[in-house]
Amino acid sequence: MATGRSPTNIAVIKYWGKRDEALILPVNDSISVTLDPDHLSATTTVAVSPSFPSDRMWLNGKEISLSGGRFQSCLREIRKRAREFEDEKKGIKINKEDWEKLHVHIASYNNFPTAAGLASSAAGLACLVFTLGKLMNVKEDYGELSSIARQGSGSACRSIYGGFVKWCMGKKDDGSDSIAVQLADETHWNDLVIIIAVVSSKQKETSSTSGMRDSVETSPLLQYRAQTVVPSRVLKMEEAIKNQNFESFAKLTCADSNQFHAVCLDTTPPIFYMNDTSHRIISLVEKWNHSEGTPQVAYTFDAGPNAVLIARSRKTAALLLQKLLYCFPPQDRDLSSYLVGDKSILGDAGLHSIEDVDALPAPPEMKIPDQKFKGDVSYFICSRLGAGPKVVADENQALIDSVTGLPKGV
């Protein structure tokens, strides 16, 4: 039995569109930031036993089918690379050829909403591949692991590393060069603070998979973006990250998010991932950035309405939180559950109680100062850059009962 924990990641240069559906090969390179796994991550336990009659998987306590091609690809590729395993203390020895015959039980848990545009599949599939690899004693080659994770969910390949990560689209037909590489680790630029506005934790109407397929088939803007815009943007983004140039980083991040959603609108039929609340958050950030004369915050939206806001410093993040809570106060007046993750940011923003939120002045850049949108944001998450996957050594934290072979509590 092995347990691992993998972070989610948010793309700042977006992946949208595949050149090969089966192998999940993208039409362009993409770049992401890995989020702190304490705040957003998937935890997965994988158990193996000769008594298991078939492969089974549970996600957040509910059994799901493993028959899909993506899960099967990950299982097949890891089994192919499995090596002999021995635990003398427990008296267990598994030969290389035995792994093919043994069935696995997989239990996975996300500590954030699934399928709501927060890259839950990226965390989940990266965690599955990483943990299976640990269980089956697969050689540690993160590039190769990222290539296997990619076959489960494209953006999962970027969750194999921490910090800033680039997914190289690759040129080869077999996809062997379509892998993730780390541009810089999570300590490289640790001034950055990330605030996520969870506008909706509901599952989205158009899945990323079907949305991408429609865009590739019908959007002329997607082809132009992939061939002309993204290659130069990727180079500029790598430079901005290397030099910690926030102005360039923010401008590129916002522009790429907006272009991705423009591609969605250019698709037939058009795809709407953002909603009015998403647009209000963009407007708030744009007006503030403009009034300061230089970007304070970058925004980016994946395939969903949730805003990922990257502040240049902790001080800026505290000011951003004041503005957000003025515009989007909590529905039930409970501040402690309205901001999760790194709650200490509330203290930095001088917000110790709901009365402090009530007393906030209107942001000076707002045209109509009294406009408030109570209940439009479900909650906020405060996070930062984080590390890649880790083994969870404490057996008490395993999600599977070692006696029954079933998820704990099932």
Order of helices and strands: EEEEEEEEHEEEHHEEEHHHHEEHHEHHEE
Let me know the largest β-sheet: 6 strands, mixed
CATH topology of the largest domain: Alpha-Beta Plaits
Could you say which structural class the secondary elements and strand pairing correspond to?
alpha+beta
Per DSSP E runs of 2 or more residues, the count of β-strands stands at 19
Give the helix proportion (percent range): 25-40%
Strand order of the largest sheet: 8-7-11-6-1-19
CATH architecture of the largest domain: 2-Layer Sandwich
% residues in beta strands: 15-25%
Whole-number mean pLDDT: 94
| Basic shape | globular
Classified in CATH, the superfamily of the largest domain is GHMP kinase, C-terminal domain
Radius of gyration: 22 Å
Stretches where pLDDT is under 50 for at least 5 consecutive residues are none
- The CATH class label of the largest domain is Alpha Beta
Distance between the termini: 18 Å
Q: With helices defined by DSSP (H or I, 4 residues minimum), what is the helix count?
A: 11
Total domain modules: 2
Domain Diphosphomevalonate decarboxylase-like N-terminal: 7-180
Coiled coil: 75-102
GO molecular function: ATP binding; diphosphomevalonate decarboxylase activity
Family: Belongs to the diphosphomevalonate decarboxylase family.
How would you sum up this structure in a few lines?
With 410 residues, this protein is α+β, with helices and mostly antiparallel strands.
